Amino acid sequence: MLRSITLLALPALAAGGLATGALEGAPPAKRISSTDDLQVYDTPRIDPATAPGRPLFEQHCAMCHMGGVAKAASPAFLAMVAPDSIVAALTDGVMRSQGAMLSAEQKVQVAEYITRVPFASYQRPAPPKQCTGRAAEFDLTDVPGPIGWGRDNRRFIPAAVAQLPAAAVPKLKLKWAFAYPAANRARSQPTLAWGTMFVGSQDGTIFAFDPDSGCTRWTTRLSAEARTAIVADPDTRRLYFGDLLGKVHALDAMTGKELWAERMSDHPDATITGTPTLGGGLLYVPVSSLEVVQAGNPAYACCTFRGSVVALDPATGREVWRAWTAGEPKPQGKTAAGAPILGPSGAPVWNSPTYDPVTDRVFFGSGENYSTPADSNSDAVFAVEARTGRQIWRTQLTARDAWNVGCMVGNDSCPTENGPDHDVAASPLLVTADNGRPMLVVGQKSGEAWGLDPATGKIAWRTRLGHGGTQGGVHFGMAAEGGTVFVPINDMADTYDARVYDAKLRGSGLHAIDAATGKVRWFTRAPDTCRGAKFCDPGISAAVTAIPGVVFAGHLDGMFRAYDSRTGRVLWAFDTRQPMPTIDGKTTKGGSISGPGAAVWRGKVVMNSGYGMYSHMAGNALMVFEPTR
Questions:
Q1: What is the spatial distance between Cα 162 and Cα 156, in angstroms, rounded to a whole number?
Q2: 193, 479, 555, 575 - which has most CB atoms within 10 Å?
Q3: Interhelix angle for 83-92 vs 104-115, to 10°?
Q4: pLDDT of residue 72
Q5: Rounded Cα distance, 57 and 45, in Å
Q6: Do 211 and 327 fall within a single domain?
Q7: CATH code where residue 28 lies
Q8: What keywords would UniProt list here (predicted)?
Q9: Which domain holds residue 312?
Q10: Rounded Cα gap, residues 304 and 346, in angstroms
Q11: Which of 121, 152, 176 represents a domain boundary (last residue)?
């Protein structure tokens, strides 16, 4: 199945292992799910071999974007940018000098060649209704608290913010829904602050919604997909987030005006998957990449990307320090195809760093190496000084893990280690256990949870919860309530990696474990509602969110469930794949749920659905739920 994929289709595969950001890329060669009534990319009809934009790209763009200029985004990234954004960049954006040599028709042809999407079929809908009157007003008394990705990665929302008793959860009903424009996925986690819901989208639009009505207080269109949660700074009323092209943006929360934007790496395949973390006067940005997919081409010199965490001055975007997660790549020989092997490389940081104000330390995890040799920095947990980035300790959880897409498509770009691709994909959680001791709880794609001493990095316990693998184990995020940690496990039955896993160990579902010992307090297996549907799986890849007494979890089969945090009993469920009326009188529906989790605020539950990438179901739904009285 995978051996027939061409290089031009490889951006649709994924990066850094198939967890956070896994298999993300351009519209696939064929529609991968039934989403005919969605405003999503139609089946691509542009043949890159004969497209008139091909010679134009080769003449005017390839010299820079094929590696000639370090910061120029590679074709793998450009393929994921909206077609009108490319035309805009060539007309009056950053590429306007190159675009000056092209006619309006030629700019469209270049955009079609890059994205494989016919420009005429790309129709951007009208923006949502603009708020008027009191609905347009921000509530400045609703100061954002230190909760959620980018502030406190435990993903626990206290009662004062949630304002949703466990007894009211079974009464949740859909209040309103919104269809993200021209999207087949929804991966920016909504943030609620100042009485406003802030969320990004695949086409680069940032929305400031009135949570009650769904009208917008402002919208800002940027050039690339917003991939992270929106981090709200209560002191400056600024918003911070990362995008597909590896840029961090700062916006004025009251107006949507961009204050600064900085790219976090010179590498053309660098991106940002984990949410930047605000703490101690700095903004800590994790840097990952899609270079791992380039190795699907046996002629590609793999690999040169090195993962890192960058500390920025949040006022200006100026780099203060950088902590690398892989050694400097050096020549290691050549493949049978004659391509240079460069290593060590990779060890991307997919997760949101965890800041500890007590010790003034930052904790984060790394993914696999991309090329031979695997080093001691991959699949590891790091502790660094928050002010300087100096490494305090590093604990590797899985040794000798080097993997890239060449291993999936069966060419000799695959490292000799050949995986197992066991990224530390989710943020480490700094938890006070029931015995009063601090514990750093780590989830891994190996299907294991770990307890580490945050002072030394010494392993305190290790608990297997599933078989793990390329698309198994823990993906986007865990949550904690007190000394209990809620660990979602994906463990797909068909992982599309030609590997066989022990079905007896399949742990798809939600686990509650004791942070002090790793002992499992309860496990609720994910019900299988797929009934044989293609690209449907019951596992939990998305981050989970906890409020007092309840854990919210979105599943890859499109089911959104609320679990009793004491027993694991399902309290409420909603099928996001069903057609839903939108605030503008149209219809949308979700698909697989992965990436971000739920946001809960003032009695409302906000959730994204749709993850139209390799082996998952497309969708473009933003949903707001509220209990009936």
A1: 10
A2: 555
A3: 140
A4: 64
A5: 18
A6: yes
A7: 1.10.760
A8: Heme, Iron, Metal-binding, Oxidoreductase, Signal
A9: 133-627
A10: 8
A11: 121
β-bridge mates for residue 205, sequence order: 221
Under a CB-based contact definition with an 8 Å cutoff, are residues 308 and 287 in contact?
Answer: yes
Q: Are residues 200 and 117 in the same domain?
A: no
The answer to whether residues 552 and 623 belong to one domain is: yes
Sign of the CA dihedral running 357, 360, 363, 369: positive
**Under a CB-based contact definition with an 8 Å cutoff, are residues 472 and 490 in contact?**
yes
The one-letter code for the residue type at 311 is: A
Number of continuous H segments (helices) and E segments (strands) in the chain? 9, 37
Residue with tokens 């699949």: 379
pLDDT digits (tens, 9 = 90+) for 271-280: 999 999 999 9
Tally of CB atoms within 10 A around 388: 11
Q: What are phi and psi of 556, to 5 degrees?
A: -70, -15
Cα separation, 139 vs 131, in Å, equals 14
Note the pLDDT tens digit of each residue in 567-611: 999 999 999 999 999 998 999 999 999 999 999 999 999 999 999
Per-residue pLDDT tens digits for 221-265: 998 899 999 999 999 999 999 999 999 999 999 999 999 999 999
Q: Whole-angstrom Cα distance, residue 133 to residue 103?
A: 44
Same domain, 374 and 413: yes
Q: Residue type for 92, please?
A: D
The label of the residue with tokens 């943006």 reads 249
Q: Does residue 401 belong to any structural domain of this protein?
A: yes
The residues near 591 (Cβ < 8 Å, ≥ 6 apart) are 33, 35, 558, 576, 577, 609, 610, 611, 612, 616, 617, 618, 619
Establish if 126 belongs to a structural domain.
no
